[in-house]
Amino acid sequence: MSLTANWSYPTSVRFGAGRISEIADACAAAGIKKPLLVTDRGLANMDITTRTLDLLENAGLGRAIFADVDPNPNEKNAAAGVRAFNEGGHDGVVAFGGGSGLDLGKLVAFLAGQTRPLWDFEDIGDWWTRADADAIAPIVAVPTTAGTGSEVGRASVITNSETEEKKIIFHPKFLPSVVICDPELTVGMPGFITAGTGLDAFAHCVEAFSSPHYHPMSQGMALEGMRLVKEYLPRAYADGTDLEARAHMMSAAAMGATAFQKGLGAIHALSHPIGAIYHTHHGTTNAVCMPAVLQFNRPAIEDLFSQAANYLGIQDGFDGFCDYVDHLNASLNIPKSLTELGVSSPDIDRIVRGALIDPSTGGNPIEMTEENTRKLLLQIV
Ligand SMILES: [Fe+2]
Question: Fold identical between 5-185 and 190-380?
Fold first, then answer.
């Protein structure tokens, strides 16, 4: 089977090994003549980034790059990116990287033409309608990890560096016009990033599948996304050059992020404040939280995950699924607790407060209260 295709759902996706060679054509399709490539510091000097800049330059699109992006990007990175975009006279963004590069790239394209401050666009009610939609620059997204799925998402996660809170900025036009999913770009990812990002995709699928909101399309996607992770994440972890496994993980990432339009839940609600305060890796933090959250949600999701277990070829229904998650985490060397993750004395009150106001909280199938969230968190410490 050829692992190459063009998809138009949820946006235009050029999927297949080697398709980064189409970057200039993708910019043309998005109406971009002078792109600013936005990525994080770690990727700035890597070969895949240099090659992409070469492709842009050779096509007469320049080779402008902004890479002053922290692992958990914040409002200062956004302001510097907007300055680079406007001073360079750019007309669009190539958002390139994992969650940080993609989210900040999307945000720069969104903010560059706005007059109101960033936090006016937080994902609360209809605040997104405050934006001047015509001033949002077009975006081409190029993921280099397989986890966040931000390439097919309509939001960016950004840390408020003063309050140490992760905020979601939402607008429908955050959805990139064109996405290049080239699994060859993920071949160089080290094992612990492969595991952490892959388990972020898995958490998106598990939480979307658990969420009580009505969205059968997402439900189907979440289930198949879990199957792809189950089959291919161990392979991608064991052999980073296994291109078939890398391709299916890239699909799982895009599927998880598309599916979570249905909702996220307690895993992300806890992971967001933990990551914002202690700068832990997002996907790895999710993986640490998942076993306890499955038990927390058990009364609401037991039957649902028995069905999922059947589809996934897992014996013993819900319990079998939980055992599978424990086994998967162990096989990928995921820490069992926040202490093992390096967060030895977490501020419980602060994390609980952050979790309860996180937008993911509303998608959890069991209502999260101060009391039960505290109990849940203490099981993870
Ligand atoms: Fe996530």
Answer: no
Q: Is the pLDDT of residue 300 over 90?
A: yes
Cβ contact 138:186 at 8 Å: no
Q: What angle do CA 190, 322, 209 make, to 5 degrees?
A: 80
The correct answer on CATH 3.30.465.10 for the domain covering 5-185 is no
Judge whether residue 114 has pLDDT over 90: yes
How far apart are the CA of 198 and the centre of ligand 1, in A? Answer: 10
Count the residues in the chain. Answer: 381
268 CA distance to ligand 1 middle (Å) = 6
Q: Which residues, listed in sequence order, are joined to residue 94 by a DSSP beta bridge?
A: 37, 140
Give residue 2's pLDDT band: very low, low, confident or very high (50, 70, 90): confident
Query: How many angstroms separate the alpha carbon of residue 87 from the centre of ligand 1?
Result: 32
pTM of the full structure: 0.95
Mean residue pLDDT across the chain: 96
SS3 215: coil
The CA 38 to ligand 1 mean position distance, Å, reads 20
> Separation of 304 CA from ligand 1 center, angstroms?
21
- For ligand 1, the distance from its centroid to the CA atom of residue 67, given in whole angstroms, is 22
How many angstroms is it from 306 CA to the middle of ligand 1? Answer: 24
**300 alpha carbon to ligand 1 midpoint, in Å?**
22
Instruction: From 149, 27, 144, select the one nearest 97 (Cα to Cα).
Output: 144
- State which residues have CB under 5 angstroms from ligand 1, the bound ion: 200
The CATH homologous superfamily for domain 190-380 is Dehydroquinate synthase-like - alpha domain (1.20.1090.10)
Cα 88 to ligand 1 centroid, rounded to whole Å:
32
Segment 24-51 shows an average pLDDT of 97
Query: Which residue in 160, 134, 155, 179 sits closest to 78, CA to CA?
Result: 160
What count of other Cβ atoms lies within 10 Å of the Cβ of residue 45? 10
pLDDT in tens, 256-290: 999 998 999 999 999 999 999 999 999 999 999 99
Query: Residues 198-219, buried b or exposed e (16+ Cβ, 10 A)?
Result: bbbbbbbbbbbbbbeeebeebb
Q: Determine the pLDDT at residue 9.
A: 85
Domain boundaries, the chain: 5-185, 190-380
Amino acid type, 213:
H
